[in-house]
Specification:
Elements lengths: L23 H14 L8 E2 L1 H8 L3 H13 L3 E4 L3 E4 L4 H23 L2 E2 L21 H8 L2 H4 L6 E2 L3 H23 L2 H19 L2 H12 L2 H6 L3 H20 L2 H25 L8
Antiparallel strand pairs: 1-3, 2-3, 4-5
Protein name: GntR family transcriptional regulator
InterPro entries: GntR_C, TF_FadR/GntR_C, Tscrpt_reg_HTH_GntR, WH-like_DNA-bd_sf, WH_DNA-bd_sf
Pfam family, one: GntR
Length: about 290
């Protein structure tokens, strides 16, 4: 874990250059968010905006705009007359976010196990054609696939999840589990994290309720640092077992088992986080 101090050189940040997808502010936002979630910018660390501008090769405006967005996400604090720093993790907020996820996602898998969904499944894990021999797909490719507008265009009217639709969901989840297994074996923590997100999004896409998905995604934004913080080999192995239990219950159509497996999966994050916080209190705001 890096020391809490200003990293004036910010050598871990790659200059943006003149080309790239999205506007400058969006690109700066993505770079800084990833640095915070990945703990290259540690909780409580002061941020030198000018040094970041110089390192990324951008003006102050997009950096200031990106930091304002990160403040709204709870990842940074902008202190008048004192500067900007990375927010420490607040356990109370994590508990609330996990409460929302637990309630919605357990009900989502219960509903899917009972055989209902609002829209058909069109979600396929990217990179299957390349095979596992070429490694886990990079973050940019996976991120783009998650937000692909072509998937939304495939949604249809409300209908029961059955036949080919159920098979498609199970095939997508099982394919995702194979990628998770490969990432775990390769020690690819970041790749596993992205595949973990993909697993949960696949379930929400299958359910097809846009407001439920939006609520879960909003709650999850506050948990990304925590999930990365706990991404030890042991935690990754347990997460994979939890995901396999969820898929097994869905395959069997066992609604109670599916909901219980999801609840146990999300509860384990809080249990591990409380233990971690006791050992690393400087990273947390409310201990």
């Amino acid at each position: 874990m890096p020391d809490v101090a200003v990293k004036a050189s910010y050598a871990f940040l790659e200059p943006l250059g003149l080309t790239g997808r999205g506007g400058t502010t969006e690109r700066v936002l993505a770079v800084l968010r990833e640095a915070i979630i990945g703990f290259e910018l540690a909780p409580g660390e002061d941020i030198d905006k000018l040094a970041i501008c110089e390192r990324l090769g951008v003006s102050r405006f997009p950096v200031s705009e990106a930091l304002a967005r990160l403040q709204s996400e709870g990842l940074v604090e902008i202190l008048p007359q004192r500067g900007t720093r990375v927010s420490r993790i607040r356990l109370a907020e994590v508990r609330q976010s996990m409460f929302i996820r637990r309630a919605l996602e357990s009900q989502a898998v219960r509903t899917l196990a009972l055989g209902y969904r609002a829209t058909p499944v069109g979600h396929v894990i990217p990179g299957e054609a390349e095979g596992l021999g070429k490694g886990i797909q990079g973050p940019k490719e996976i991120t783009c696939a998650l937000g692909s507008p072509s998937l939304a265009a495939k949604s249809k009217a409300h209908a029961p999840l059955a036949g080919n639709d159920k098979d498609a969901l199970l095939q997508s989840l099982e394919r995702n589990l194979r990628y998770q297994q490969a990432a775990a074996q390769a020690g690819d923590r970041r790749g596993f994290h992205l595949l973990d997100l993909e697993f949960h999004l696949t379930l929400l896409d299958a359910l097809g309720f846009a407001r439920v998905k939006a609520a879960v995604e909003a709650a999850r934004a506050n948990l990304d640092r925590v999930r990365r913080l706990l991404s030890s080999p042991r935690h990754i192995a347990l997460t994979l077992v939890d995901h396999q239990a969820i898929v097994t219950a869905l395959r069997a159509g066992d609604a109670d088992a599916a909901a219980s497996a999801m609840e146990a999966h999300l509860d384990s994050v809080i249990t591990e986080l409380v233990a971690f916080a006791a050992e690393n209190p400087t990273l947390f705001e409310d201990l």
